[in-house]
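Workshop exercise sheet. Pairs work together: one partner reads the sequence aloud, the other fills in the structure field after running the prediction. Swap roles for the next sheet.
Pair: D.N. / O.F.
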Amino acid sequence: MRYCINCCIHLLPNDLHRQCFRCRGPNHNNQKCPVCKGENKIPLYTDSKQMKLLAVLEVRTDHRESWNGFFCLRKGKLCSLIFGLIIMTLVMASYILTGAKHGLLLIPSPFHYGAFASNPSLMDNESLSDMKDHYQPSKMNISYVKDYPSIKLIIDTITSKIEFMTRQRPDLEELRKQEPHMFSVIPNKFLPNSKNPCWYEEYKGNTTTDPYATNSYALYSKRFRTIFDYLRKVFWNHLYHYKDKHYRLRCLPHFYIIGQPKCGTTDLYDRLRLHPDVRFSAIKEPHWWTRKRFGIIRLRDGFHDRYPVEDYLDLFDLAAHQIQGVLQSEAAKERGKMNNIIIGEASASTMWDNNAWIFFYDNSTEGEPPFLIQDFIHAFQPNAKLIIMLRDPVERLYSDYLYFASANKSVEDFHEKVAESLQLFENCMLDYSLRACVYNNTLNNAMPVRLQVGLYVVYLLDWLTVFDKDQILVLRLEDHASNVKYTMHMVFQFLDLGPLSEKQEALITKSPASNTRRPEDRSLGPMLPTTKAILRDFYRPFNTKLAQVLFDDAFLWKRT
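Structure field:
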């Protein structure tokens, strides 16, 4: 039995060869068929459209040849399909691997920064480290984007949302309600013949009592136990006896080096403590105002018992003993001599770290903290002097990364973390004010690098809401590194310190720099040029405002 190939293939109803169905039968002959006669080439039709991409099938009268051609066509299509899928898979795999290596994958960020935590009870079942894990972005490689314009769009969005709004300062009664114990310990008047805020406090213990038995700094840190062992030995020698009562001299610092981290504060501290009239706390960075008074020892460990203000005051006992010796000397009594010793404290977190507020102060407005560190310092020490050391925020961030990152440090990893942090900061700025984002604990813990620490002008403006401008000395690390003698003279003048001998001055100004970059970090080299360009754009509006506030274009950092 022979059939026309058009009858063997299921033709569509509108096919031009429908009439071939009439000649179907046992005696059908292609040569005699009026439709098929003289035709040996028949086009294929699919969905009523001629397939011009395929070769025209050769139709022969031989039954076996027509079926062989049909099966060859089916096998060819199948092989082509499989071969095409293999090629496409290999091409896509090559693209993904190459793109991941060279930073060409432009995948949208899966992150969206959530709402601020506003309930202090959140910490009942969740530590700070747990919270960081909860808000930690995915490990997907989305950040290493060398396409500068794509990240520039994020920065442009952030810049468009920047508003430097004046902060409303809380009144004294509100502060008292928040920290009643602190206000009960620190008086509102101090000894008149001391530059430091000092006062006498009655000591009710006896000779067998350990005055530092409950001090949290001594309990939680082995490094400080030697200091407290010495203080125990000399404690009773420095008590003041009056009318069968014992009194101890208590002091707060006269000045604070309040920031910023990785800006040369350690070097400034090491040089300044060589001055014969300067004393510091027993610990360089107590971090009491920002962390310890809230019970934060290390952020990853969550909250511990809060360090009372007495523990903080204990850190100044060594200085208080020397001040007391001057105050009680016969010469001082006769002449009413002013004590020239001044006490300093150098916690580099004081200027910027207000992360703990959200867990203790629940009357915030739109995510902004109602109370800041400077509010409480000013309440007790309205005449305090503040020293700030800054550096180019771009270089500060890279130095911060190299110092605190524990493993897998590289310029590529730094680039990824910068891009990821910018995305998180942008998401916050879309919903909240600049101040709310800068001071938010959840965002700051989620960002892999501390972008917010370099927003110097935001913090400075908030400090200027409570302190006068002449109480704050702002220095640049770049100037300090190039001319140590000049910057130290500025500090001495600011603190009203007396003149030094040439030998004393040489000891202070010619000693080697402290806390410099480690050799293994230096070997990584500078950050990528693309990363630097991105950070320059991000910090530019903040540097511009800082230069305006300080009337000094050096804080634009154009030449660094």
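Discussion prompt: The longest helix spans residues 63-102. What would you look at next?
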